[in-house]
Amino acid sequence: MSVSYFCLMSLLRNFTNRYPLLKNRYLLTFGIFLVWVMFFDSNNMIRQFEDRNELFKLKKEKRYYQKEILSTQEDLTALLTSNSHLEQYAREKYQMKKDNEEVWLIIDSTAVKSDK
User: Fold this and answer.
1) Torsion angle of C-alpha atoms 100, 104, 105, 110, degrees rounded to 10
2) Is residue 4 part of a domain?
3) Is the dihedral of CA 47, 49, 53, 56 positive or negative?
4) Is 91 helix (H, G, I), strand (E, B) or coil?
């Protein structure tokens, strides 16, 4: 048992002689702390990078939905203030018609072919 201990100590001594910065215990402690924080901690750098990407995506979605809310509010105020806008919206969105009229849907064949 003492032989393996002495072998280990001689290897450690040879290693520190090759790399003299490792003799400084403060630098060694800081290095170990830095490696721990970068790779093994629960808030490591990989996790922070993933969280930053997720935050960017969520902010982008937030901007999109805020724009959609504004456009929906504008449509709502237009529909509530004018009967002509309400009728136009019902005809275009839900294909509603009056009792005495016929509605013909014209589909552009060039638009259908270009979508495929």
Assistant:
1) -160
2) yes
3) positive
4) helix
In a domain, 106, yes or no: no
Give, in degrees to the nearest 5, the angle at Cα 97 between 96 and 100. 160
9, burial (CB in 10 Å: exposed 0-12, middle 13-18, buried 19+): exposed
Per-residue tokens: 37: 């924080």
Domain-embedded: residue 6: yes
In a domain, residue 114? The reply is no
Q: Report CA 10 to chain centroid distance, whole Å.
A: 51
- Compute the distance between CA of residue 99 and CA of residue 35 in angstroms, rounded to an integer: 77
Contact 22, 15 (CB under 8 A): yes
Residues 33-66 pLDDT 10s = 988 888 888 888 889 999 999 999 999 999 999 9
